[in-house]
Specification:
By secondary structure, this protein is mostly helical. The protein has 13 helices and no strands. The chain is about 55% helix and about 0% strand. The longest helix has about 30 residues, at about 215-250.
């Protein structure tokens, strides 16, 4: 079909009447979604819309990350490693999108942000329950964080449940044990409400897997997928830190944290420390 006057003709079969049919907008609840941006600055500052949409889209992606990681944990419990790896692969793509989004927010200059930052009060990304949930399900448990969400019973309950549930790493280690790998009993019976800490006894297990990859390919591939997951998460944390430094320097956060200094400490946190430690041991 040729295009005349730079205008396409509409196909005859295109549906036009949605009086009794579900439309794209109704399926996606677009009237609700697109009416959820309410700048609070007075007079309204042009760049606040960017700030709101940046954080709202982040929360939508985090919702999908949690959806995938919850299923990944369930698949690992069912010894369905293939489905679990598919879930992790999808999360890795979402992480890349989330990291790239910081470049959009970085277009907000310090002068522009300062003109509406004061209107935010104590609202802060520090209070993102979904971000904390992702940290918890990956193994960075911190029960003290729950106090931030006491005024939000639903968010508090979600985080409390994840705090007391095995992390992705706990589930993976339990999977390895069921497959006959020598996982220490102390690891399998640890208090899952605590953050996983480096356990030297796990390093020989991973060294065996890596040095015998051909015979343990599924476990080997899973280890590398988890390493990718942590690498991506740390890149996100780093871009977050650099964007904050670029925008507000070393000011305190609106939620009461020390701002960039607090984010810097997050780079020292780890999800799967033995998977990185084993690299020093391989070949020795």
């Amino acid at each position: 079909m040729s295009v005349e006057k730079n205008t396409r003709k509409l196909d005859e079969g295109i549906v036009r009447d949605f009086s009794s049919r579900m439309s794209y907008a109704s399926y996606l609840q677009l009237p609700t979604l697109l009416s959820a941006q309410h700048p609070v600055s007075r007079p309204e500052h042009h760049d606040e819309m960017l700030f709101i949409i940046q954080h709202q889209t982040t929360e939508l992606w985090l919702k999908l990350v949690l959806h995938e990681l919850r299923s990944t944990a369930a698949w690992l419990r069912d010894d369905d490693l293939g489905s679990a790896l598919k879930g992790i692969a999808r999360v890795k793509h979402i992480q890349k999108t989330l990291t790239e989004q910081w470049s959009v927010l970085a277009t907000l200059t310090p002068t522009e942000y300062s003109q509406f930052r004061g209107f935010l009060g104590h609202a802060s990304g520090f209070q993102s329950s979904q971000y904390r949930a992702v940290e918890f399900i990956l193994g960075n448990k911190n029960g003290k964080m729950l106090s931030v969400f006491e005024s939000d019973p639903e968010a508090h309950a979600m985080l409390e449940q994840l705090l007391n549930a095995p992390s992705i790493y706990d589930e993976f280690l339990a999977y390895l044990a069921r497959q006959g790998f020598d996982v220490p009993e102390s690891v399998l019976k640890r208090d899952v409400a605590q953050a996983h800490e480096f356990t030297p006894e796990l390093v020989p297990l991973f060294k065996h897997i890596y040095e015998n990859a051909a015979d343990n390919w599924a476990a080997y591939e899973a280890c590398e997928e988890l390493v990718d997951l942590e690498d991506n998460f740390q890149l996100w944390r780093f871009r977050h830190l650099r964007t904050v430094q670029r925008t507000i320097g070393m000011k305190s956060g609106t939620g009461g944290s020390s701002g960039a200094a607090f984010l810097q400490k997050a780079l020292e946190l780890t999800f799967f420390p033995e998977l990185f430690a084993v690299r020093t041991e391989i070949g020795q």
